[in-house]
Amino acid sequence: MFLNPWSVALCLLSLAALFLVGIAGRTALSVLRYWDPASDGPRQIRLENETWLSSTLVQYALGFQILSLVLFTSAADNFSQVISGAMCATGALTANPFGLPALYLKLVGAFFYGFWIVLHYLDISSERYPLLKTKYIFLVCLLPLLIVDAITQTLYIANLKPDIITSCCAVVFGEGGGSDGNLLGIVPQDKVLIAFYCLAALLATCGHFLFRKLMMPLLLVNGVLWLCFIGLSFVAITTVFSSYVYAMPYHHCPFCILKPEYGYIGFLMYGTMLPAGFFGIASALVCLIPGRLGLDNVIGRFQKSAVLLSSIMLMLFVTIVSYHYVIYRFLGGER
């Protein structure tokens, strides 16, 4: 499957990211060893010049890695056209043991990569670059994740065989034992809906108070709530909302909603939910910067913007996922 255009694009993207971050890793080690803001020697001047270039390269490399999550999901959907039994990305991702781990790594990695970009933004907002060492330590920690991501992705593509018989989403997420069970287990849909809307309302309330006045304890609580909401949203989309998009009560799949026949509505759902969660969590994580390093005003402005963005995207996300559910119920459809 390596000759597939999607595979080529994914491999090139991973190689480019590894190459750029690898180059920056060399600069990171020099910064951790020799960086001295009080010095004006040749080595310090050379390091200052290098950090600008390497930080810019890393910013683009990690941005590409975040985009690779979208590319990987689209590629899996494309692979399903040549794999026996697969009807969508679900079948392609479960065709071998590396598909789902590769997806999870990219999903979790997107949050880490995004937070490095946030640290970089905060760092260059001050002429003293107070977060330079912190962001390069973080970058060194990200290298293993990038490598594991690339290896898992390569193993997934290498083990994809068109003659492998896999299961479609109707089987993977289908009924189990005559109940509404699926890959996530037997999940009571009414309770999922109640928890989903209650948590969304709680997050909107937290966002309202935080936008009026930033309070560290509430920011931290808000970050934890966002973490829970992301997990709950995946469950709610799979077990409840997706079936209303398909207008098929027993079809539960978190990937078919990405297809053109459903207007790519899945991209709108995930494209609002994941950035909303990221900004909600990031606004809490920056509270943990030790001593704030003279960045109080910059961090405060970022938190206000992040809280506002997460609240707006939360409203968009809830509106989008609820649209078919409300229309179906309003028109009197039956489950």
What is the topological layout?
Elements: H1 5-34, H2 42-79, H3 89-93, H4 99-123, H5 132-158, H6 169-172, H7 189-212, H8 216-246, H9 265-285, H10 296-330
Helix pairs in contact: 1-2, 1-5, 2-4, 4-5, 7-8, 7-10, 8-9, 8-10, 9-10
Can you give keywords for this protein?
mainly alpha, 10 helices
Describe the 3D structure.
The chain is mainly alpha-helical. Helices cover 72% and strands 0% of the residues. The protein contains ten helices and no strands. The protein has helices spanning 5-34, 42-79, 89-93, 99-123, 132-158, 169-172, 189-212, 216-246, 265-285, 296-330. The longest helix is centred in the first third of the chain and has 38 residues, at 42-79. The protein is flat, with a radius of gyration of 22 Å.
